[in-house]
Amino acid sequence: MTRRLRVMQSFTTPRTTTNPYITMLAESLRDEPRVELVTFSWPRALIGRYEAFHWHWPEARLASGSPLRRRLKKVLLRLLAHRHRHSRRIGVVRTAHNPDLPDLADDEQSLLARIQADADVVIRLNPTTVVDSGVLVHDIPHGDYRAWFAGHSRPPRRAGHVVTFGQLRGYKGVEDLLTAFGQAHTADPALSLTVAGRPTSAELTARLLATAGAGVTLDLRFVPDEDLVRIVSSASLVVLAYRDLHNSGSALAALSLNRPVLVPRSASTDALAADVGEEWVIRYDSLDGAVLREAIAAAELLDSDAAPDLSRRDWGEAGRRHADAYEAARAHRRSR
């Protein structure tokens, strides 16, 4: 039997609060016979044995509660990047979750750019992601959440009810949605909106409380899966008013619960619509009350038992394609 490829992920052992994408990826890799999954720790990463390393959000390795610990992690991350750059035995893979580097200090951005440039293989979650020329690219769509949500009860959709959910950040445009919903609600007072998720700052919380008007319910907390399924299933339409939407786990979560989404028009949302069905991904160029009302009406034309086509997003297939990417990265590194 061929020895399995030992692959370290940049995430630690998943917990109940871990991003479901990471948990489901870990499960699919444990089921993949070509891969031995190793989760992250600094000692294992710096001196342990592995043949491939897979980066997800490398900036997460800098996160810390104190300036001193952050400086220490920065040193460790430089050492790890140095090990990967100069090893001919460790293939490096990164998933392009976001199109741009995060807004950090210049030296931290430089370090992340170095890590990004040193990857042997880049995994794209959608084919519109731009990567450097000459880099080996493997396209592996974001897996669905159908199995993840299977054990939770789902209420029927409510006519005229809109939901947005997820961790609430400024760029996700929740205030823009509240403004548009206010216009729509003035025209049709039967409409309702639930905003579910924990804001990332007290300032954003205050702005949401100030902007929310009639017909709006704010559920500003971390929402466990059981409640999330209930909230999303109650919607006729899920709105993700992101100011820059590229890859969205929230969109896949809504679609996995058979709820259409309203999203800004972009190359990536056009590609998602072509993949899962045009009627399931309603796009807008500018969000206002009229656009929102038209989208609700379009969403409610879907049969209550209809479902989008998520056939390309099977996690078993994702595990196999990740194994292909790891083998390609190892071969590329050894050929240098």
CATH architecture of the largest domain: 3-Layer(aba) Sandwich
Please report the total strand number as a whole number.
12
The name of the CATH superfamily of the largest domain reads Glycogen Phosphorylase B
Q: For the largest beta sheet, what order do the strands appear in spatially?
A: 2-1-3-4-5-6
- Identify low-pLDDT runs: none
Main sheet, how many strands, which sense, barrel?
A: 6 strands, parallel
Which structural category fits the helices and strands? alpha/beta
CA-to-CA gap between the ends?
Answer: 27 Å
Radius of gyration: 21 Å
Write down the CATH class of the largest domain: Alpha Beta
Fold blueprint:
Elements: E1 5-9, H1 20-30, E2 35-38, H2 42-47, E3 52-55, H3 67-86, E4 91-95, H4 106-117, E5 121-124, E6 136-139, H5 146-149, E7 161-165, H6 174-187, E8 192-196, H7 202-211, E9 216-219, H8 225-233, E10 237-239, H9 249-256, E11 261-264, H10 267-276, E12 281-284, H11 289-299, H12 315-334
Parallel strand pairs: 1-2, 1-3, 3-4, 4-5, 5-6, 7-8, 7-10, 8-9, 10-11, 11-12
